[in-house]
């Protein structure tokens, strides 16, 4: 039984999407109390299942699974029966696919005028790229993710998580919650057009706009901060130094200035001064941090008010005392479950840890 204070405890969402963005959006809403019915192709199911049980579980834990072939009359009829009692449908096909199957927004609204259809696609339902194939790296490339320089010695490298997919899933979940509230207030559903490219563009646009005037000399961009960077340590590990406010530079100089007096160079005393000598500051800090192992730096910086962090490896992350204390990550049979990362003072439903087989619930 879901607790009465869960704001989505009587919301039903039909998830006909695959892989990451749509399923993750639905997973977020499930963690907030919604009942999510996963509609999968009979036999093979969500493509994520082919990537491994843990990958599928990551985005579909706690969802019921119904197997329907939407290319058949019987499958479509069964799908519309689900829509009659649902609040929202989430799909991730290319634009026009749902309509060609006879399951576009108009068809859904005919059986349930309050239904919300959320279409998560690569480039949106309109525009010159609407029909193009794409995955995370494509959206990042076209949204200017690498257009903004951020390091003195900058390099193009791929992110370690699917940034644009997660951006889109967050916007989709937020928009679904608002649209469902609206539909319940006025009885009228709507079609949400979530473009993964649009989502990450909303994150990258401001930085890229600033970078336009510095393309010939990227280091001059204000987005490049020489003291706010990753640095290698003597043992080949890395640390993160997040200095932004000048007080933290002062604290760094107080902590290390005796051992490394070059940090107290008057040219570097202010943010403006350091910005005028970016290469010198960054190279100096790199040389400083290469003099000790990461564990030594961790011990050294512990007493100081400096935004220092060790770059944790996968074997260290889940034993980190703060990660353990916050309990966002739970250990479950076969791996981990990641709970909703916001603490509600009135609580949220207990995590449902089952992972349904294809068609297990109908």
TrEMBL record:
- Which keywords fit this entry according to its UniProt record? Isomerase, Transferase
Specify the taxonomic lineage: Bacteria, Pseudomonadati, Pseudomonadota, Betaproteobacteria, Burkholderiales
- Official protein name in the record: Transferase similar to caiB/baiF CoA-transferase family Alpha-methylacyl-CoA racemase
Which one Pfam family would you cite for this protein? CoA_transf_3
The EC number on file is 2.8.3.16, 5.1.99.4
Naturally occurring in which organism (per UniProt): Cupriavidus taiwanensis (strain DSM 17343 / BCRC 17206 / CCUG 44338 / CIP 107171 / LMG 19424 / R1)
* Superkingdom as given in the UniProt entry: Bacteria
- The answer to keyword Isomerase applying to this record is yes
Q: Which SUPFAM superfamilies match?
A: CoA-transferase family III (CaiB/BaiF) (SSF89796)
GO terms (molecular function) for this protein are: alpha-methylacyl-CoA racemase activity; formyl-CoA transferase activity
Quick check: keyword Transferase in the entry?
yes
């Amino acid at each position: 039984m879901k607790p009465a204070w869960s704001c989505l405890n009587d919301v039903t969402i039909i998830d006909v999407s695959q892989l990451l963005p749509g399923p993750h959006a639905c997973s977020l809403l499930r963690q907030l109390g919604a009942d999510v019915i996963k509609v999968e192709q009979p036999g093979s199911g969500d493509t994520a299942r082919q990537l491994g049980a843990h990958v599928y579980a990551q985005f579909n834990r706690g969802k019921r699974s119904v197997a329907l072939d939407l290319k058949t009359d019987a499958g479509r009829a069964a799908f519309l029966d689900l829509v009659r009692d649902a609040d929202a449908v989430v799909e991730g096909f290319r634009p026009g696919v749902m309509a060609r199957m006879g399951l576009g927004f108009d068809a859904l609204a005919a059986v349930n005028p309050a239904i919300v259809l959320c279409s998560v696609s690569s480039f949106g339902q309109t525009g010159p790229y609407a029909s193009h194939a794409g995955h995370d790296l494509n959206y990042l490339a076209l949204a200017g993710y690498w257009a903004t320089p951020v390091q003195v010695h900058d390099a193009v490298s791929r992110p370690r998580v699917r940034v644009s997919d997660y951006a889109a899933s967050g916007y989709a979940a937020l928009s679904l919650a608002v649209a469902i509230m609206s539909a319940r207030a006025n009885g009228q559903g709507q079609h949400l057009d979530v473009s993964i490219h649009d989502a990450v563009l909303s994150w990258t646009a401001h930085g890229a706009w600033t970078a336009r005037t510095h393309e010939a000399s990227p280091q001059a961009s204000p987005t490049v901060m020489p003291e706010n960077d990753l640095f290698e340590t003597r043992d080949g590990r890395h640390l993160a130094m997040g200095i932004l406010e000048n007080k933290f530079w002062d604290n760094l100089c107080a902590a290390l200035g005796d051992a490394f007096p070059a940090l107290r160079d008057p040219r570097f005393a202010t943010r403006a001064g350091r910005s005028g000598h970016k290469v010198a500051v960054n190279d100096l800090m790199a040389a400083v941090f290469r003099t000790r192992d990461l564990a030594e730096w961790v011990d050294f910086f512990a007493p100081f008010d400096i935004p220092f962090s060790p770059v944790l490896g996968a074997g260290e992350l889940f034993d980190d005392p703060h990660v353990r204390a916050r309990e966002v990550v739970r250990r479950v049979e076969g791996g981990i479950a990641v709970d909703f990362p916001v603490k509600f003072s009135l609580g949220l439903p207990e995590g449902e840890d089952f992972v349904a087989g294809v068609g297990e619930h109908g």
